[in-house]
Amino acid sequence: MSVEVRLPTLLRAAANGSSRVVVEGDTVGEVLKSLEQAHPSLSGQVLTEDGTLHRFVNVYVDDDDVRYLDGLDTKVLDDSVVSILPAVAGGA
Amino acid sequence: MNGPGVVISTALIDEMVAHCLASYPEEGCGLLVGPPDGSAVTRCVPTGNVAASAKLYTVDPRAHLRAERDAEEKGLAVVGVFHSHTHTDPYPSPTDVVQAPDPSWHYVLVSLRHELASVRSYRIVGGAIAEEPIFEAARLESD
C-alpha cells in the first residue's frame, strides 16, 4: 500500500522540511519502518530501538489512535492517512 | 523566532481558567492555537484529561488530532498547551519538563492554589525553563 504520513512540526526538519511523506507498507509498523528508511534522521524518534512505539508519540490511522486499534499491527489501506503527533502530557 | 512573549486575549485566559476550574479536582488541560510563528494565541481548545488525575494530565489524543487538523485548515497551528496545577504554583514541574514535546511551544500554567487563579507562560527548551511575558490583549481577532 502507498500511504500518506503526516508529520508534526517537530519532526519535519528530519524529513527535509516535509509535512507529508508518502511511503509503502501494509501495517502501521511497516509504514513507520519505511518512513525511517526514507528519512534516517527520524530513526529513534517514532519507534524505539526495540521496534515499539515511542511512549511520547501518538500515531493515528485516519481518526483513530493505533493504541486503541492493533498497535503497530494495525492494517492500512491505500487511501489511509497515518498521522504522527507528540503525546502532550505532564503533571504537577 | 519572535521576541520572547506571547499575546493572549483576556477572554482566552478566562476560558482557560474556566476550563481548569470545571475540571477541578482533576487537572484541566487543552491546546493553544495561533499563527504558525507562535507570536499569539488566538484560540484555546479545552480537551479532556485522559489521565483523569489531580497530579497528571494527558491531552486526549483524538482531540489533539482534531485540533491539529482544524488549525491547519485555517492556516494556523497548535502553538502550545495549557494545564492546571491544582495545589501548586504556576511553574513547570519536573514531569512537565521531561514530557514537554516541542521547544517552540508556549507552556501555559494555571494555578488554582489560591482563590484567585494565577496564569503564567513558559518556554521549555532542552530541559531549561524560561518564563515569558503574556501580553494580555483586550480583544484579538479570532478565527
Task: Summarize, please.
Helix content of chain A is 16%, strand content 28%. Chain A is of the alpha+beta class and 92 residues long.
Describe the protein's topology.
The complex is a heterodimer of chains A (92) and B (143).
Chain A: E1 2-6, H1 9-12, E2 20-24, H2 28-38, E3 57-61, E4 64-65, E5 81-86, E6 89-91
Parallel strand pairs in A: 1-5
Antiparallel strand pairs in A: 1-2, 3-4, 3-5
Chain B: E1 6-9, H1 10-23, E2 29-34, E3 40-41, E4 43-47, E5 56-58, H2 61-73, E6 77-85, H3 94-99, E7 106-111, E8 118-125, E9 128-132, E10 134-137
Parallel strand pairs in B: 1-3, 1-10, 6-7
Antiparallel strand pairs in B: 2-4, 2-6, 7-8, 8-9
Fold and architecture overview:
The complex is a heterodimer of chains A (92) and B (143). With 92 residues, chain A is of the alpha+beta class. Chain A has one domain (2-86): Beta-grasp domain (Ubiquitin-like (UB roll), Roll). Chain A has two helices and six strands. A five-stranded mixed sheet of chain A has the order 2-1-5-3-4, covered by helices on one side. The radius of gyration of chain A is 12 Å and the shape is globular. Chain B has helices at residues 10-23, 61-73, 94-99, and strands spanning 6-9, 29-34, 40-41, 43-47, 56-58, 77-85, 106-111, 118-125, 128-132, 134-137. The longest helix of chain B has 14 residues, at 10-23. The mean pLDDT of chain B is 93. Classes of the chains: A alpha+beta (92), B alpha/beta (143). The interface between A and B is medium-sized, with 19 and 32 residues.
